[in-house]
């Protein structure tokens, strides 16, 4: 063992024992698989080489086949066929337990050594060579991977059996010494080669296994990392949405408190002025002045009502409690009535209002009250953002089973990047644009929710400085069984609604 260890150390082939032990199962399995492939390939090469030798026997040494040595060579060549074919068949049968191939491999090694020795004994009578034996040993050590214990038994045994065979066959002494020297060195060389290739192969398998194990570790770490990143991302998303909500809440409070404060301040100032004037006996308040203050108080009360209604509605929508009360209604008449009801207000601002429709009458299923609210919101916005001298056009037509209502103005327009955002809550385009009018930025978001509930669409086409066109598309269908209802005209109610919706516009 000392020499063996020394050999391994000298050859730098020593693999750490614990690794060798750890991976011995994998090493043995890979050795077995490699040897099976190599033996099958060697068998094919041998079958080919043996066929050439048999042909040589027949064609070249035909005349000498009567001599027993040549005849034996010929028979030995022939005998190789059944041996090789038998093993070939064995390797092609799927043997369940891979370990059993260990014995088949060992047996073919022994059979080939015996065969090569028989060839070598016989060759003494032809050319006094042991080339078959030497070649077999060399190929075995170089091409097959054998555990050192096996090669340490196999090769010396082959040497001893050759020696005994040669002594029995009575080879002349001079030749015998030469053969002993040759076969002894061959055994030593074969042992060297075999041990080197065994440990090199072990090192290769150990490296492979270490890499595979490390890869597994990396994969596990990677998975763990992905899981951690995922859970942290989820947490961040949660935090982010909480933060967004918080931001929205803060901006809602800031915006709404501003919206509340302005009309309350106006009402309070008007009330204080009135009080002051009423106390002042020297210059009694005129009726027109009184009317002016009262109207200002009223308008700001409407603004407060509008704000509170919007907040309640947004809440109702958020809670999913806003329900539609669908009736078959003439949408053309409904739209025309609303346009007419705001015509005076719009005219007062010196804006031209045009109503145009391609349909005389169109009955569809709508919640009249809510649709009126949407159109009022669009009209009040159009008026808010259009300067005196401008135009507001309301157009109605039918397209692809939808009733289209377009409210177009020649106002300040909306920048492209904000066109879809204005339907979100609390979004207002730069306030500096809209000094003469105020708003909470909730109106369009309520309108969108109402139109969505009607399974319709609302969108805007706009260009800054040129104007905006808000388009509402409502599905054109009626509720079966329900009669087309003629909406009861509640003029007073509508006037109130208009006043409320237009309350944040100062004329
Ligand atoms: P508000 O109550 O503030 O009017 P809306 O939701 O109705 O809220 O409108 C949101 C914002 O969309 C407005 O503040 C304004 O900036 C923009 N906007 C709406 N309609 C128009 C329009 N016709 N022209 C220009 N800007 C508009």
Automatic annotation (TrEMBL):
UniProt KW keywords: ATP-binding, Coiled coil, Kinase, Membrane, Nucleotide-binding, Phosphoprotein, Transferase, Transmembrane, Transmembrane helix, Two-component regulatory system
Secretion signal span: none
Coiled coil location: 211-242
UniProt cross-references to SUPFAM superfamilies, sorted A to Z: ATPase domain of HSP90 chaperone/DNA topoisomerase II/histidine kinase, Homodimeric domain of signal transducing histidine kinase
Transmembrane segments: 42-61, 73-91, 103-123, 130-146, 152-171, 183-201
One term of GO molecular function: phosphorelay sensor kinase activity
Main enzyme class: transferase
Residue ranges of every copy of the Histidine kinase domain listed in the record: 255-478
Catalysis: reaction(s): ATP + protein L-histidine = ADP + protein N-phospho-L-histidine
InterPro entries xref list: HATPase_C_sf, HATPase_dom, His_kinase_dom, HisK_dim/P_dom, HisK_dim/P_sf, Sig_transdc_His_kin-like_C
EC number: 2.7.13.3
Name of the featured protein: histidine kinase
